[in-house]
Amino acid sequence: MRDKLLEVPSDAEGTFLERKNRFLGIVEVDGKEEKVHVRDPGRLEEILYPENDVLLEKAKKKDRKTDWTLLAGKVNENWIFVNSGYHREIAENILNMPELSPFGEIKGYEAEKKLGESRIDFLLEKEEEKIWLEVKGCTLAQDNIALFPDAPTERGRRHVDELIKALEEGFEASLLFLVFRPGARCFAPHEEQDPEFSKVFREAQKAGVDVHALKLRYDGGAVYYLKEIPICEVYKV
Q: What is the mean pLDDT of each run of 10 residues along the chain (237 residues)?
């Protein structure tokens, strides 16, 4: 293991049974079927399938419709983290660790800043520049290639468009992918799943949007930083 980014202990291990809809799954825990909140907009078809092992977190609020939240699913011998609710905190911890962050030392940042018709995750402030930063979580990999998205994402395309416009207004702009697939060797947009996102991704690179893909690992108790991985050769600009 490398640098610990965030402790996220699991409270139970279960067997995934069914995904009722985008936000609701059914998991068997200690012989009982439980409704589980799925906090990830992706399809997660290679992770959330019947009889697969999953890790759960006990709900912290008592007035929720479900008592559990999904944290991770097993792929081969790895737990793949699938809870996007922690992405912001993970990203903030990376930003506050200049030895790990692609942006080095920063003076500060603002979160959830409005840009055009969207809200972008961060506006970073450095000594002589400001950087708009959008963070995306990546849970899909094929042939050791990390791929985003795993479902068409109009919202994701819009965010990238806003970053391109920010460049035109004199700001810096960057995309940061949190890659939760420890076996991934490089990152690429998932052209087969969302050709429009792949198109705007290429346009953003050509315009000067920096792209960083950071490989992370979840061990059932904490999220760890492994390394930055490159953009796959065919998608380099």
A: 89 97 96 96 94 96 88 97 97 97 96 94 94 98 96 95 96 98 97 96 97 98 98 82
| CATH number of the 3-81 domain | 2.40.50.580
The pair of structure tokens assigned to 235 is 């998608």
Residue with token string 């796959």:
232
How many Å is the Cα radius of gyration of the chain? Answer: 18
CA distance 93 to 195: 32
Whole-angstrom CA distances from 50 to 13, 18, 27, 125, 201 are: 14, 6, 9, 46, 33
Report d(CA 234, CA 237) in Å as an integer.
Answer: 9
- Give Cβ neighbours of residue 32 (< 8 Å, ≥ 6 apart): none
Listed in order, the ranges of the chain carrying CATH 3.40.1350.60 are 84-235
Q: From 3.40.1350.60, 3.40.50.300, 3.30.420.10, 3.40.50.720, which CATH number describes the 84-235 domain?
A: 3.40.1350.60
Whether residue 38 contacts residue 66, with contact meaning beta carbons closer than 8 Å, is answered with no
At position 93, the amino acid (one-letter code) is: N
Predicted TM-score of the model (pTM):
0.95
**What is the C-alpha to C-alpha distance for residues 204 and 171, in angstroms, rounded to an integer?**
14
> Position of tokens 């809200």?
119
